[in-house]
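Hey, can you fold this one?
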Amino acid sequence: MTQLHRGTDLQTELDLSVQTILFPISTANPKDARELMEDVIHFEEFSKPMRDVISQAAQGKEGEYFVSSAHPRLVDGKPSLNVRYLQLRPDIVNPVMRYLQNYQRVWHEDLRSIKRRFISG
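Sure. Predicted structure:
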């Protein structure tokens, strides 16, 4: 199986550990999970949420599946070039951050306006 870079996209690995809308990701079975865990060096490259998913999947029954950030969907026998998934937008999940960013932008604009008034006036 072609591997993506484990542990480099922490948001993706966190999302994959809890989300289920995963079109560009291949499913893997408990045997695959055990093989991932046996490759200790590469297994440790996953983030903790993804390691937890894989560890739990390794104890699953035949016929059960899981997803891993290192396994893109196969299209015509080759890994998909579109390795993204339907991600929840962080600004919607955490609206406080969006509010603070907007507040900061407005505050800076007001500050610039005040400086212009005092400098030019």
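The mean pLDDT is 77. Let me know if you want another pass with a different chain boundary.
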